[in-house]
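Researcher: Here's the sequence for the chain we discussed earlier.
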Amino acid sequence: MRQHFLIIILVLVSLIAWGQNKKKYTVNSKRAIALYDSALKAYNQTDLYTTKRLLEESLSIEPNFIEAHLVLSQVYMEMGEANKSIEYILKAQSIDKDFHPRAFFTLGLLYFSIGEYQKALSSYETFLSYRDKSANMNNLASKNIERCRFALDQIAHPVPFAPIIIGKNVNTDLDEYWPSLSADERQLVYTVRLPKNPDKGIKGLKWQEDLYISYCNENSNWDKGTPVPPPINTEFNEGAQSVSADGKTIYFTVCRGVCNIYQSVLEPDGSWSIPQKLPPTINTEKYSEKQPSISPDGRTLYFVSNRPGGLGKFDIWKSEKQPDGTWGNAVNLGNVINTVESEQSPFIHFDNQTLYFSSAGHMGMGDQDIFVSRRDSTGNWLTPVNLGYPINTHQSEEGLIVNAKGNTAYYSSDINPEYGRDILTFELYPKVRPTPTSFVTGIARNKKTLEPIRTSIKLVELKNQNERMVIETSNDGTFLVCLPTDKRYGLFASAPGFLFYSEHFDLTGYHSVDKPFRRDILLQPIEKGEVIILQNVFFAFNSHALLPESTVELNKLLDVLNQNPNVKIEISGHTDDVGDDDYNLKLSERRAKAVADYLISKGVNPDRLKWIGYGKTKPIAPNTSAKERAQNRRTEVRIL
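Model: Thanks. This is the structure I predict for it:
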């Protein structure tokens, strides 16, 4: 809508210029005209208050002075008083509606800005009936008519929306906004607008933004929010932040002229590290980068910037972490997401596939509406969907996030203006929810010494072999990996000098994310006699045919053999106790050989491989339940 208000200015400036050149007005009073001319001089000097006073004096002498009504409308609009601006356009039109037809265009913009969509629609239609000579304005009027009809349709079909203020421990008489949340929903980081010098009174009052943090207690209530400890908060503005899924890293915006993105990490002693400005691949010197959102695996940072190369005023960009840990060059998300207007407040959900953001360019109800887009199977973003009314209104809506479970949204609003902006939650209706996401936490250790190991962990969709998450554990070996539901995953952990660790998660049809998983990873050094179970090697029922889902794990084993050319292994097959003993023994041997054959087909020397079947003779669990029998049906690798 900002470009539309620029058009209003051009429309009325053309009126002013016309009046100044023609020196002929709709009234004859020299005193009124003199005051009007003085008002125009004050306006050209951007002195709006003097302009307003002089125009009001002029109108007190000549109430039918159309030009004065129209320019006074412009002044009120620039002061942010849309209703007063409308009032003076209507007064001018009551005198002569045909005097300045473009005022109907202006009226349409103003009505739209306050949510009077039907009146805006009528104003635009009236404007088009005059057949204005400007094709650009006619086209804009037609597009805005489409926006009016869209807004009216949204109001006629509202979506479920019942916002709740989250509590006085977080919300105060100050402005609280821009919430960010850890995956376990136990840590809330948000921005607070604070007075810099509260003792100097209203005249000396200046404001700054700081980061605050609150923790969810055992009663599922938020404890009192406190400033994030030094050295993050300073005398400058810190805000518009994003907390990592494990709550141990904060990416945030610092504005000193232009805005840039900084990072701070939680140290083992509970303090936050000295903030580090992100590199030039993300931050520029002359343009602003702000409003970061870190992906759940910490590998992709989304943010907005007005740097060159974008499609509009502010676009959403991303930078991906490279194998060496550095951030790659920023990439624009493209014209499916970005428009010629501004996009703001990106939030990538914990499923790593769903993006929420605000836009003034996509079809909406106001300046900034909230939209959702999802990645398809090829990684491309799908057409954004407006979250609907009354989530979106004629006002600007931005800064929305969604919890890992996918059912609750957090955002800020001045729903109670006397208390400022507050953080609220609401239940997100199913159509615009992300994939519900659970998570697995644990510690990676050396199996022999139990010392923590810095480990690379990958979460892979077994069906299509897509990597959904790639994370590095903290220095203390701790990790959190998000698990979007309704998929089968292989989780793989690896570190130099160790055999890889694998785990299998079958979440197909599984939608309960209230009970996260705990898995401590014990990595085995590559030494003679060490054994690992291939958790993600699968065979067709009653067959030795490898299923496609096995490829990811077999390739992990292939990597170990290629990186350690002197290693020789034994591949062993095992069954449960169901069925004929001799049949099980032969089936287990054929399955072990199938794994060996795969490795040989990829270039492994057969002399490095031995395969054997043990049937049911080496169970690792009692064969008393389906779950235990599944544990016994396994493929193992032993270092020879």
